[in-house]
Each structure stands twice: as C-alpha cells, then as structure tokens.
Amino acid sequence: MGNMKRDFIRSFISIAIDPQVLEKIRGFQEELKKKVAKTANRVSWVKPETIHLTLKFLGDIPVNQINSIITSLQRAADGVEAFSLNFEGLGVFPNLQKPRVIWIGLSGGIDPLQKLHLRVEQELAKTGIPREKKKFSGHLTLGRIRTLEDARALHDFLLSVPSPVAGLSEVRDIRLMKSELRPSGAIHTELGRISLG
Predict the structure, then answer these.
(1) DSSP readout, the chain?
(2) What average pLDDT values come out for the chain (197 residues) when binned by 10 residues?
(3) Domain 5-195, what fold?
(4) Is the pTM of this model over 0.85?
C-alpha cells in the first residue's frame, strides 16, 4: 500500500510559451501584483517561468500509462502544422463578481488551437481517458485568488486595467508534463515532447 501513490503521477498536456512573451507577462504580472494587493490580500501568483497553456489536465494517471498517452499524442499531432497564438486581454474565472483565477486570453490562433485540442481529446478517449466536460478555453493563468478583501474594488480595477498584449508565441510541439505540488509552488517536469506536423 505504501507505494500506491508512486504508481500514479499528477499530469497535464501543455503548450510551452515563447520566452519573450513570458517576459512581457512577467512585467504585467509585477504591475498587477502591486495593484491587486489592495483588493485581494491572498493571491497565489504563478511563477512566470512555469506559465503555460494547459491543453488538457489529466490528473493522477498510472505511471504504466505514460507510453500509451505519448503514442496517442503523436497520433493527435500528426498532420497538424505549427501555428502561432496571440496572447492578449485580461479575464477572470468564473466571473467578475466572484473572481478566483486571473488569466490572459487569446486574440489569435484560436481555430488551430481548438482543432488540436479536439484531436488530443479524441485520441486520448481511445485509451480510456475521459473527455473534458467543460468547454475548452485557451488561457494563461497569472494567479489564483485565495481570499478577497474587497470584491467590488477588484471588479472595478480589473475592468479599468489596460488590456495586456503579450504577443505571438509559436506552437511547434505539445508536451506531457508531470506536476508535483509543493508548498513553494508546483514543480513541472517534462515526460515527453511531441512535434507538430
């Protein structure tokens, strides 16, 4: 029973973000931190170097399933050409009245991303991994709001803040990642990288 947990790993499929885009996001996040501190006193900010686009969260998967997942991802990526994503705009989940997650959205590359996501879902379903019930919405998580001091003030601030433009990021591959939750933040380790095309 003791090694039961080791037979499973917490994992997700991600798209890596170009360094110059992450650099812009880092700057925007620093500005946001100062201002949001007045209205939400506990926000877990995502470390800029770990920011990524989650194509699909897998949760705890058996270690012996890794190879079949990588094979499924290879089938999903086959015939999908590399494309660009344009990151722009600020949003929150689930809504401005009860913001829990602050994110940067997309203004370009949405169609190829949706197609890739669909192919990933279809191929993984063949291996018994259930499809996502929620509608897929590509975004980059900046921070998670733990406690809200002043919902109204945060609401007004988020509506007034200039929309960030982080720029274009090339999508050349998809990655199977392992995620270890630590008190200092999640540690992500690459398990496999599958090129598009």
Answers:
(1) -TTTGGGEEEEEEEE---HHHHHHHHHHHHHHHHHHTTT-SEEEEPPGGG--EEEEEEEEEEGGGHHHHHHHHHHHHTTPPPEEEEEEEEEEES-SSS--EEEEEEEESHHHHHHHHHHHHHHHHTTTPPPPSSPP---EEEEEEEE-S-HHHHHHHHHHSPPPEEEEEEE-EEEEEEEEEETTEEEEEEEEEEE--
(2) 70 97 94 80 87 96 96 96 96 89 95 97 95 93 85 81 92 97 86 95
(3) Cyclic Phosphodiesterase; Chain: A, (3.90.1140)
(4) yes
